[in-house]
């Protein structure tokens, strides 16, 4: 038996969706802003005496100003971070409940054993009411407690351990490993682009010294280089590569500790320690992104 993210509480799926949409909106807005700056600089350089070009360039700069105002007012970055925090909190609580880890280790009637879990979800929601305008609900988001969650919780502790290792630890290990490799590759690619643009600007400046009368788009290339630098700083590929690689190694060590689980009580301790490690990594990530 396996448990996937669509089997998690509706609050998780809603917060996760809101976070991903806000993240996409933020980076799309930033991407448009930087591209329009480069285009505006290009139009201004290549058509310096054209009235229509001047109007077009001014319009582009006006649009970039509007994008900046939108980012400042709508604050998609805040929604991204807060939505991710809610989703990760719900995910941690869900795995603790499914695995019968503290404080959800007591057995009892379904309604009674779910009450404390649901109260915790309500607390998470109440603490993040700023997200109320972006948290959506529809039947396809699921229920507060899914049938799959109940079924996994009812399994013997040996089978629950197998589910936890497969669907939580191995899943996280694979995710962090893939993200680390992706950010490493992107960091290298953007570094090359940055080097090329800076080198091109230097060569143009040196050529201008030799041929002062020559008109070269140094300002356009410089604007493009600045745009690349801004994009790299926003994406933080190098930092995320190191962070995700470290997290992947830590998860491998966590998995190794599973051999010490020989009874129900040990499973509870193992899950608590594992979830604490996952939560710690996410908290550090949010702190880095907020700097």
Question: Could you explain how this protein is built, in words?
Answer:
- The chain is mainly α and 291 residues long.
- The two termini are 41 Å apart.
- Helix 3 runs antiparallel to helix 9.
- It has two domains: 154 residues, no CATH class; 136 residues, no CATH class.
- The mean pLDDT is 87.
- The longest helix is centred in the middle third of the chain and has 54 residues.
Short description:
The protein has helices at residues 10-46, 51-74, 76-98, 110-127, 147-153, 157-210, 218-235, 237-256, 264-290.
Key descriptive features of the protein:
291 residues, 9 helices
What is the element layout, followed by pairings?
Blueprint: H1 10-46, H2 51-74, H3 76-98, H4 110-127, H5 147-153, H6 157-210, H7 218-235, H8 237-256, H9 264-290
Proportion of strand residues: under 5%
Based on CA atoms alone, the radius of gyration comes out at 25 Å
Number of domains: 2
Low-confidence stretches: none
Strand count: 0
Order of helices and strands: HHHHHHHHH
Q: End-to-end span in angstroms?
A: 41 Å
Residues in helix, %: over 70%
Could you say which overall geometry the principal axes of the C-alpha atoms support?
Answer: elongated
Number of continuous helical runs: 9
Would you tell me the structural class of the helices and strands?
mainly alpha
Largest sheet: none
